[in-house]
TrEMBL record:
InterPro entries: Chloroperoxidase, Chloroperoxidase-like_sf. PANTHER family: HEME HALOPEROXIDASE FAMILY PROFILE DOMAIN-CONTAINING PROTEIN, STERIGMATOCYSTIN BIOSYNTHESIS PEROXIDASE STCC-RELATED. The keyword Cell membrane does not apply. GO terms for molecular function: metal ion binding; peroxidase activity. This is Heme haloperoxidase family profile domain-containing protein. Keywords: Heme, Iron, Metal-binding, Oxidoreductase, Peroxidase. The keyword Hydrolase does not apply. Residues 25-243 form the Heme haloperoxidase family profile domain. Its cofactor is heme b. SUPFAM superfamilies: Cloroperoxidase. Pfam families: Peroxidase_2. Belongs to the chloroperoxidase family. Residues 270-279 have a biased composition (Low complexity).
Length: 285
């Protein structure tokens, strides 16, 4: 049986190279094909989907990832070396090569952690984190973006123009740790760092908010695809990422303090309305 000419291609082989026989141009997008390996990391998967590392996601060295991070996202050498080599060390693959799925190894000193933004926790008895993206988690994550009043007024197509900033990320982190469970300090730092990098790579300013375009972010986190025609416009450095990560941490702290204060306020008003009603009930008796 032959397929009509207009039929989209059904599964092809990517192999070790960076060129895809279907995507055409060198960094054109092509999703993983049967047999390709992928990680629970949108950044690395997008690099494979656009041919910045082997499209099959297999037998990758830390050096190949360094090259990919610099070319794809414009990371500085110190930041790219830090992420790739420290990452391989944590994963237990220092000096060796790996397939992308191995990056999701779930262990105490691994990079992978619970309470991810769009992935479920690693299931009991499983060695690797799931790579499936839960579309409901994506939608909830996008709802964590609270646009300013001015942004809403200025936009006819909200999602196109809204920006996601470190406060929105903090809201999502607090929510996910409440939904799953709190994660330890090292993994909390990793989780903040993951988002701090992309906040730096795509940062842009509107009249009243600084952040990254929600449409870029949604496509990247859910389809593991880069914005059409986008190329890095600056070198993203390690020090800047640390500052952004600190902003997220402070915003998380503030949200938790506010939640405590409002819970204490609720408890106080419940107690006072209880004593009121039991007092008046007593008066009537
Ligand atoms: C441009 C550089 C990078 C960025 C922007 C980035 C960003 C992200 C983001 C946002 C997530 C969270 C996905 C979620 O919460 O559902 C993630 C997950 C992950 N990334 Fe990356 N990443 C980068 C590079 C790397 C590198 C170099 C490694 C390892 C060598 C790595 C390993 C991981 C792992 C293991 C996870 C899973 C963590 C989890 O359990 O949620 N990433 N990354």
């Amino acid at each position: 049986m032959s397929l009509p000419q207009s039929h989209p291609p059904v599964g092809h082989i990517h192999g070790k190279g960076k060129v895809c026989p279907v995507a055409g141009e060198i960094h054109g997008f092509c999703p993983p094909q049967p047999g390709d390996s992928r990680a629970p990391c949108p950044a690395l998967n997008a690099m494979a989907n656009h041919g910045y590392i082997s499209r099959d996601g297999k037998k990758l060295t830390a050096q190949a990832i360094v090259r990919g991070l610099k070319a794809c996202y414009g990371l500085s050498s110190p930041l790219a070396y830090f992420l790739a080599y420290v990452g391989f060390l944590f994963i237990g693959k220092f000096g060796r090569s790996l397939d992308l799925y191995e990056i999701g190894v779930h262990r105490r000193f691994g990079v992978e952690h619970d309470a991810s933004l769009v992935h479920h926790d690693t299931r009991k008895g499983h060695k690797y984190a799931p790579i499936e993206i839960d579309s409901k988690l994506v939608e909830t994550l996008i709802r964590d973006v609270h646009p300013s009043r001015k942004e809403i007024d200025a936009s006819s197509d909200p999602e196109e123009k809204f920006l996601l900033n470190y406060e929105d990320v903090a809201r999502a982190r607090v929510r996910r740790e409440a939904e799953c469970r709190p994660i330890d300090a090292v993994h909390a730092e990793i989780a903040r760092g993951e988002m701090a990098i992309i906040l730096g790579v795509w940062e842009t300013k509107s009249n009243n908010k600084t952040g990254i375009p929600v449409d870029h972010f949604r496509r990247w986190i859910s389809e593991e695809r880069l914005p059409d025609g986008w190329k890095p416009d600056h070198v993203q450095g390690l020090r800047d990422v640390r500052a952004r990560s600190t902003n997220i941490r402070n915003a998380v702290k503030l949200l938790r303090q506010q939640a405590l204060i409002s819970a204490a306020g609720d408890a106080k008003s419940r107690a006072s309305s209880y004593s009121h009603s039991s007092g008046s009930a007593g008066g009537e008796a």
